[in-house]
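Two proteins, back to back. First:
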Amino acid sequence: AGLVCNDVSTLWPSLKTMAHTLSCTFGAQVLANLYATSGESPAFAPHFDTHDVWAFQISGEKAWSLYGQAPNPVNHPLFNDLDKAHHQANKGELSAQILTKPGDVLYIPR
C-alpha cells in the first residue's frame, strides 16, 4: 500500500522555506508531495514526469530504476494523456539503479 499527499509545502515552516528557496533559485514553481510506501508495493509503475523531480529521502530506503529519457516532455495533453502501457513500452534502456537512504537527495530532470 502507498500513501500520497500532494502539495504539502505549506504544512511545515521548514518545508515552506525549502520550497521557496528552490523556487527562487531555479525560477520555477515548486510543489512538495509526500509519499509513504511499503517495500512490497512500488509507489508508481515506470513513467516519466513533465516536471523536474527532487526526491528527498527522509526515512527508510527507496530503490530507483531510471530509464532512458522521454523526448522533451512538457505539461501538455500530448504527454499527460499517455497510459501506463505506453509508458511501459517506451521506457527505454535501464540507465541507473539507485538506492536512496535518509539524508540523500536525488534529482531527476523531466
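And the second protein:
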Amino acid sequence: MSEAPSSAKATGARLLVVDDDPDMLRLLSMRLNSAGYQVTAVTSAESALTQLEIEHPQLVLSDVRLPGRDGLALFDEIRKDHPTLPVILLTAHGTIPDAVEATARGVFTYLTKPYDARELLEKISQALAMGSPATTPSAGGDESWRSEIVSRSNRMAELLAEARMVAKSDASVLLRGDSGAGKELLARAIHKASARAEKPFVAVNCGAIPEALLESELFGHMKGAFTDAHANHKGLFQQADGGTLLLDEIGDMPPALQVKLLRVLQERAVRPVGAAQSIAVDVRIVSATHRDLDAAMEAGQFREDLYYRLNVVTLTLPPLSARREDIPLLANHFLQRLSTKYGKRLSGFAPEAIKALTTASWPGNVRQLFNVVEQVCALSSSPLIPLALVQRALRVPSVEVQTYADAKQRFERDYLVGLLKLTDGNVADAARLADRNRTEFYRLLQKHELTPGHFKADGPSSPPGEAVAEERRK
C-alpha cells in the first residue's frame, strides 16, 4: 500500500467511515488506521448520525449506496447541524452524476470505486487542512484561546470549530443567543484565536449606555464639545485600534447611532464629537444580540444596510438547556473558583444536588448557573453542597419524599381541617360537605385527634377525645 503523506500521519485526526459492505469497511479502517487516523466505522447513515451525537469527528467518509438513507441524504443531514464538517463520498460509476451534484452542494469531493489508496489519503489530508484549526490538532494542542469556555458537548465543539475558523479571517461576526449564554466569552475567544490577539479587546453594551453618551463613548469627543467635555476623550473605537471591538446588544442601538456606525464601518475612520477631521481606525467588529434582528428590520427598528455589514458570519450559541451535559462540568468549575473567593473548602455537590441542577430549566443560562453556584457557595456550612441549598438558590420548594401512606394521612388531615374551618366546627355541615355520615366523620376526626369545638369562635379547651364524645352525645 502507498505511504500516507507525513502530515497525515502526524494529525491523528478522527474520521467517521460509513459503508454497508463489511469487507470494504474493514479494509478502509485498516488503511486509515495505519495512516495514523483514529477511525470509527459504522454500516448505515442512521448509525453515522447517532455517532455524530456521541463524538466529534473531523471528517466523514461515506459510500453513496447505503441501506435506507443513502450517502447523499446523510450529507444533507450532516450539513444541517455540522456545516463545517468535510464529507468525502465514495461512489460507483452509476452514481457519479449524483456525486457531482452533491459536490456542487458542498461535498468536499468524491472518489470512484475502485479507489486509489494514495489519492484517498491525499484527499483526506487536503480536506483536513482546509477544515477548522479547532478540529485539526496542532503540534502543541494549544487550546488556550478558548480556555474560558468550559464545555464537553458536541454542539459547543462544533460552534467552537466554526469560531476558530472565522477568527483567522477579519470578517465581521454576529453572535446570536439568549441572554447569559456566553456571547462575550465567545467574542473574547475569537479575538484570542485571531492575528489581533496581542492588541486590545474592548467590549461595550449598547443597551446599557444612555443614547446621549453612547456616541461619545464609541467615537470619542474633543475638549469643549459639550458642557462636561473638560478634556479630549478617546472613544472605544480608538481604544480598540488594531484589535477587536465587541458591540454587545447591538439590537438596542438607537437608530441615529446606527447611521453613524455604518459610516464608520464603511470609511474605517471615526470623527470624535466636536472634531473637524476623522481619525483612521483598524478594528475587527464582533457584535452580539439576543434580539431577532430580522424582525427588528421588518419593524423599521434596525437598518438593513448595517445588518448586512455586521452579519458577514453568524454564530449562534445554544442555551444551557440544550447542552445539559455541560451543567455538572460548569457547576464544579464555578465552585472551585468561588470557594477560593469565599475562603471555603468545598468538595463538590451531593448527587441529588447535581441532579437538580441538571434538570432545572435555566432561563438565565450560564450566567444564572454561576449566580446559583455563588449563592450556595456563600451559604454552605459543609464541604458537600446539599440538595436543599441548590433548591433554595433555584427558588424551587423542597420536596419531601413521603410514602403513599404518609401522603394520604397528611392530605386527609388537611382536608378535615379545611372542612371544619369552612363550617365553623359544625360536624353535621362538615360531614354533609364530605358526603359522609356523621358516625364515619366522627371516626375520622378521632383518628386525626381533631376537636370540632376548636374551630368555633368560642371553642372549648377540652381534650380531643372528650370534645368528640361530647359532640356525639348532642
